[in-house]
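Many introductory courses stop at the sequence. We go one step further.
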Amino acid sequence: MPGSRGIVAPAVTIDAPTAEAETLSGLIAAIYDAAIDPSAWSDVLGSARDFVGGLSAAIFAKSLSGAAAGIYHDDGVMDPLYKRLYFEKYGRIDPSNAVHLFAELEQPVCTADVMDYQEFRQSRFYLEWGAPQGLADFLSAPIEKRGDWAAMFGVFRHHRHGPVDDGARQRMRLLVPHVRRAVLIGRVIEEGSLQAASFSATLDGLASGLFFVDGGGRIVHENAAGSEMLAEAVAVNSSTGRLVTTDRAATAALADIFAAAETGDTAVGTKGISVPIEARDGTHFVAHVLPLTSGARRGTGRHYAAAAAVFVHRATLHTPPAPEVIAKTFGLTLSELRVLLTVAQAGGVAETAATLGVGEATVKTHLHRVFAKTGTARQADLVRLIAGFASPLTR
């Protein structure tokens, strides 16, 4: 297996075999249904787990330090004891904590992308948490990032599945864009206290603008917030009855998605998961599109003769955390970044090795490489280097 390295998202085109394509089509429909019915996520993740190939699947969040924001949804397979132990004890030494600093959104990553696989199997994290469960690997992909925090979709691999292979990565790539879209839309719906059972009746409960459109982008219904947006014409407006934006590129992207949505969930694919819109006043908005022509959402779509529901709201810009900037500035691998950050906090080689659950020789090797890449010679220099990259707001 290859050693530690930065992660670059490859351009991949995947043609699923016919049988797999049929399974994928039904799974994607179920994923989008879960956007408006969160109770379906457990079953959906079970199907996703089986499609990718693994023991358990979950949608969760954690920070660079390993502190968890929590598990949003899971398939209910993993032992609750080990879930609790992860968040209370072992998350802090999980080698994958820094993965989201390098991985692009929707880019699947696994152990081999973080560190040498044999080194991983000798780590305290694996010996005390992974091995007792029979786990062999973990395949995950970021679906949202904010500062030093990331939401992830992941599948745990058992020894019977073996380490992550190219086939598992490819199947993961087929699912991740749809999971990401469903999670983002689900959050918008949740923030508006909109319940799936009353999807059509309580549209005005959403703070975001919501527009039902046909395949040609014609607006067939909008909620109260959507009507206000059209009246203000700052980010979106209506042109001969069609939904357009004040951003030409965004309008073209949305038109492609609307046309694809009319032919089904799978056709939407990776088109415009989050379509950015630059408003007339320089502010930024984002649009998410939920196809309505398949699955349990067909009833809502037929009610309005709509092919898609478009959610439009103000965007929150992502500011890269200091560790990400440091890693990219000096070309540090994930293992080197982990050692740098831990040495700065733990204070020594022995303490760093104990914290990370690896040997002192491994720490020394990575530390020497960090010194060489950053032009430093002492641990005190590394502490000053990190402080120099910290945001003025956090000092």
